């Protein structure tokens, strides 16, 4: 049995978490073990990047081991150009959130163990090549996230964590029904039970079957993405979650929805996907505009960023709805871009919460003089989020708009409206937070700590690098973009 | 002589059950050791018979993959249960009567009856074996004279047990009157010739009702909640997790061997019973505020899950049933030991007693989480694979079996609500009740049994292949 590097990277955080829990009597060790493990994972991920052959459409670092042959379940993992960037993104954020959480002392072993567990779960979702494994990892993510929000969250944490669990769990159930339908359909065609994604996809589905299954998948993944009107769990979860959980939630958990939609929805049910395109387009535009509009009205900085996530993930959906090269590339690129930029934004928001004790914009002001470093980083993150050229968000949104113009013509102006609103709320929020008169109770505020600055700097540098050199990332995504485009055959 | 070797595990249990009784009065630790070693040895001896396919005692006793697999499984469950009983019997020893030797002797006698069932080729043998189990376990709930609820539990258990035995015997008398035989396989020949004659249908219904009582299927479940709740945790674990499982083996023989030629009607009735049982059990469990009572109802719900695979009747479905018997046995034994431990340390078993348990008893809580997740059917634990096998087998057959599969899945999702509630309270809430007895470090047989059950659920869940292959082989040996 050959063990792939991917398997090892999936197991590492799990082992780290178990070690942390075994040594729970020594809570001061927890963060060091977590940092060491996640750093190892990140190094492994970097190795994967440089060993990855971007010209291959096939899965690389693949491993297929039989697990439960009676039902055709196997432990199958591997990375292709769609999953590899997201896998590496998860490894990156997994490391950075541990650093960012350096001062967490409340039940530290439990906390850092859960962070590592989220990392395993999300990376597993991206790496799984077997539907069954995919579903297991998908569900594994929910549990630590539920605890992270429910234990270290804010005032309404109990409500938020239950809402998060119920919304996403119902979505998972819808998804498992769709997967079961595909499983039995493929078994009838193939003549044997299998959960391998490639085998099930190869069975080929007729349109009458694709339509209900795609509809179920669309619903399931739209909750995760999230798309208006099933987005309401997200602002609540974000507002109550601790910063590290928010970073993971926005940075990688939402991407599970986009990834699933492309991998299972679009690639396996292309004809139904084409049929549903108008609906997807409408949903995407509504999300973009509504998310941005709702962000405008928020007084809680974190809620504002949460709504901006809804708006930005709308671009992913819009890009997919285009079905052409530029749109799909934009969508895939946006997933990584938003993962990095929203992570930086949430960290910036976390710094403010941490040092000022509040995130309410109306109670903040004049912070630039108090914490110049944090505010500089925050404004850069806001710029990146607005899609200023030079940061990677620009390239992604530009690609999506380009593709949308080609497909839908001037309807793209609605998306542009969303982008304009984004500039508005970002600048307005930043202006109210950083400038003006500093409230009296903020007099003693001091600047961010090293462990808060370092992750933000790292993220912004990456956003800048891929903003200036988009080709270096596009290179790795190209094969999957071409595959989706070919499947849709518009 | 060859015949004796095949019967050695049974002989060993019978001899040891008597020898344990002859121990001096204070020797409770020796009684426990003897019981553990006996059941463990019997399990290993039985395992060595895997692959034997023969009948002995003039055809009254058969050994094949089915019988050996079922016996090893039941012995393994009994093994875990008896290991953990030590802490309980230490408490019993402190009471006025101190019936520790008797306790282990009864457990061994019950185990003896249990492993006769899979080998029985005749309904009468099976009935006698079942009576041996029942009579041995009737007094167990009352073994602790200080536990008042135990008397009610034991009495209810005894009365319904006697009633159900009467129903079974009446069913068998009809069967004998019509078919002229009580041989399990010979009945099938009669059914295949005459079809489902009304009299045979009545006999089938009576057997189903009678053993339905033993399995605690709705609407024959009314005794179960009170008995499981009132009996000491260790006893509940043994009755619900080990001896009750014998009834499912009987059910397999009735439905899949004797009435195999009337599959549609027999399976439909059973399937309906399953659907009602799981739904009622889960809804009632959902309403409970006491974790012990909740688990008692959850046992009822699982009594509806297990026969789904039997109703489906394909090798895959039966293998799923086998796996679920094993999984539910391990979960129940472990869970009720946890319940007993919590009752000892915190004085009660309500949800409030479980709040903040993770900080007070971290190791036990972690093992309990594994058990609860397996109850709820979360992959990759054993409780998941078993349900999954049954669901896939049911959908594979199509028609109304698909509905049954959907009911099973929905119930599984429903049950997760109350299991998750306990986990949430254990981990996310501060302690509401102080420990009335400090938790000591060091070895505890009870904790060891809980951990053993949890580890078994996890390991068998991670590597379910061999077990499933064996279960499938056992299922095919039925015909």
Low-confidence spans of chain A = none
User: What order do the strands of the largest sheet of chain B run in, or round the barrel if closed?
Assistant: 1-2
Radius of gyration of chain A: 21 Å
Which chains make the largest contact?
A-B, 21 and 22 residues
Bin the strand percentage of chain A. under 5%
Shape of chain B from CA axes? globular
User: Can you count the helices of chain B?
Assistant: 22
Give a quick rundown of the structure.
The complex is a heterodimer of chains A (490) and B (479). Chain A is mainly alpha-helical.
Structure description:
The complex is a heterodimer of chains A (490) and B (479). Chain A has 20 helices and two strands. Chain A has 490 residues and is mainly alpha-helical. In chain A, strands 1-2 form a two-stranded antiparallel ribbon. Chain B has 479 residues and is an all-alpha fold. Chain B is built from 22 helices and two strands. In chain B, strand 1 (54-56) and strand 2 (61-63) form a beta hairpin. The longest helix of chain B has 32 residues, at 148-179. The mean pLDDT of chain B is 91.
Draw up the topology in text.
The complex is a heterodimer of chains A (490) and B (479).
Chain A (H helix, E strand, L loop, with lengths): L4 H18 L7 H22 L8 E9 L4 E7 L3 H18 L7 H20 L3 H22 L4 H34 L6 H7 L3 H18 L8 H8 L2 H26 L1 H6 L1 H20 L4 H22 L2 H32 L10 H4 L1 H15 L5 H17 L3 H23 L15 H19 L1 H19 L2
Chain B lengths: L1 H5 L1 H14 L6 H21 L5 E3 L4 E3 L1 H29 L6 H17 L6 H16 L9 H32 L4 H11 L3 H18 L6 H9 L2 H11 L1 H14 L4 H24 L4 H22 L2 H32 L4 H4 L2 H4 L1 H14 L6 H16 L2 H29 L16 H18 L2 H12 L3
Helix pairs in contact in B: 2-3, 2-5, 3-4, 3-5, 4-5, 4-11, 4-15, 4-21, 4-22, 5-6, 6-7, 7-9, 7-10, 8-12, 9-12, 10-14, 11-15, 12-14, 13-14, 13-20, 14-15, 14-19, 14-20, 15-18, 15-19, 15-21, 15-22, 18-20, 18-21, 19-20, 19-21
